[in-house]
Structure prediction request, 712 residues.
Amino acid sequence: MEAAGVAAEAQRRSVGRRLADLFHGRPWLQRGSLLAGPIGWLVIGYIGSLVVMLIAAFWGVNALSGEVSRTFSLDNFKEIVETPVYRSVTGRTVGIAAAATLTDALLAFPIAFYMAKVASPRMKGVLVVAILMPLWSFYLVKVYAWRTMLSEGGIINWALDPIGLSGPGFGTAAVWLVESYLWLPFMILPIYAGLERIPNSLLSASEDLGAGPGRTFRRVVLPLAFPAVVAGSIFTFSLTLGDFITPSLVSPETQFIGNVVKANITNNLPLASAFAVVPIVVMTIYLLIARRLGAFEHL
Amino acid sequence: MRTKVRGNPARWAWFVVAGLVAFMLAFAGCGGGDDDDSGDEALSEVGKGEGELDLVAWVGYVEDGSTDPKVDWVTDFEKETGCDVNVKIAGTSDEMVDLMRTGEYDGVSASGNASLRLVEGGDVDPVNTDLVPNYKTVFSDLKDQPYNTVDGTNYGIPHGRGANLLMWNTDEVTADTKSWSVILDPNEASKYKGKISVYDDPIYIADAAVYLKAHNPDLGIDNPYELDEDQFNAAVDLLKQQRPNVGEYWSDALKQISSFTEGDSTVGTTWQYSYFALKGDNQPVAVSPKSQGFVPEEGATGWSDTWMISSEAKHPNCMYEWMNHIIDPETNAKVAAWFGEAPAQSKSCDLFKSLPAAYFASPSHCADYHADDPAFWERVYYWITPVADCGDDRGEECKDYNDWVSAWTEIKG
Prediction:
């Protein structure tokens, strides 16, 4: 009678209990199910779409209709490599990205240092909010504001006129200016976090050993903070590398990688895809170097 | 021997990457069959309106009162037919082709350098002109043209036509502006370095060809859209020489208006819409005078626009109603007056004198814009897609649109 009772109970095990039994003792299933969602999105949505775009790079296009013709060829890559204009556009874009990164690093470091080491806790909070506030406003609004300021009748020219100077106007310098402005918060915050991690005792120890402030900075602070700077630079470099909206608004006669890709998407999607490989390669190299320098622990 | 792959996450990552690359190359190598466009047929009768209409149009072509409350030819259409109009403004023909390919729109006001590409790509259907009563009285030199008719089949309803303009700031530009040389001759253009505004589209190469047709007759350029190797290279070189002086490559008319207003641009190519907007704002701008037909002495490129219906239109009945509405005499007169172009509808010419003041219409509009003057349009070269077949005894030697697109990237540098 007892055996029958137990058997009956076994049959009545709920779905929930059965599911729990399935997962029990199978850690790979537990982990796999939890990760399935995010990884599915990553692989199918993100990487999948990248792969589809990159496949198109090997195809050609019908000159009249603009329709993609799926015949395998390496012509697009040949054109990217052989025609000088693509090299100069790449060089220009990488150059501006590097310039904006350097500028942001130089501007961000003092601010981050002040926040990490000198500011009172209340001031720290205020500064963090102040730095993050521009991120709350719409990207296009910020760039349009800069366009208005930089234009011929804009406020920059108006302010510099009494001294006899004039602003940069539209052009590559304007792009450098605006990109540096846009991504500065992304540089400040990782450096701030990195500097906070440096214990003050190290600085005191350095002083006790006879090093002046400059030496302490060069020999102690900088090497410890450098990986954080590299982490911040990943953001500023990659965001500038792909940007086409800012150049189209404050430098409407210059082409950067994003502008060339955008211009070719309608007429020659395979060529645009092939050229889009270039920033991917650049960023892969950049990230490998950044990893070497230890930036990934500071992201 | 079991490999140590299991325990090493980095190795897994490389395997995944290798797998993706292999998959990519295999897939890329597969030849896929092109979708055969089934040669869809035109509507045989216009049924009840579907309640909505999605259009792609040039700026100023579909005014519903949002630019100026008194300028509106959409609201009355919506009331009559019950079709609510949604319009997407596009800046270039390339954008229009791109938008129409998505299949999300019912119709487009296509210039000649979009219309044939859309037909070729199967993105538009033929139009049954019998279902558009107002078509009968359209000017005859707009009917059955190479840019709107293929193998005897009509693909659209003419909207209007015009020439691209040379515009300059009268305070800043004092040189002779009768000719395009003010922006295309390197010596003259350098005086306005950084202030020249040029249309951002490969089709602008034809403008250089028009200039060379007059100034370098040795090249033998006849049709600025059918250029062989030497002619093409000459045009491209001319534009590369212009490049250092260019301050703006524009495709958004509103951005160009703002740059002329601010003084960032002082001379360049433009459309009538932008010119009138600047004049309305009391900006000191001018274009070639009426006596020249608003066209510099070499002639100009221009456009003859056609309303086409998408092959995937969700609201075809509304689209036919729209095509009939846009060329009814009063609407076409309003459109032509507001944008500043020659109307397609011959009956519109009598109506300009009675349009409301908001349209700034002149009673002599048709004469000013040469609406009924086929000889005038021989100096205006409508936008059309360049193809390899030169159409004359040179055969297949001409540069096709892919060459133009690549060259344009090189010109901009």
